[in-house]
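Appendix B, example 12.
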Amino acid sequence: MPEEIQARALPNMRVGDFTIIPIAPFVTSFVLDAPGDYAALLEVDGAELARWRFRAVEAADPAGGTLAGSGSGPHTEEP
């Protein structure tokens, strides 16, 4: 499913100019063993189509019961 993000352009940009927008995706079931530099690859039939480099840092545990909290499991509706 293709997605599109629109943002206000800088004054010196022309229509159609590309820009970099930092994003923070929420990814589950993805384990990093330690803080450091990593890369995520998008491969199709063995051909690398894209590579995203990122740096993992150690953060404090989030509050329990939050989306990122430890043991918070999938959200289920109460009847």
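The radius of gyration is 18 Å. The longest strand covers residues 47-56.
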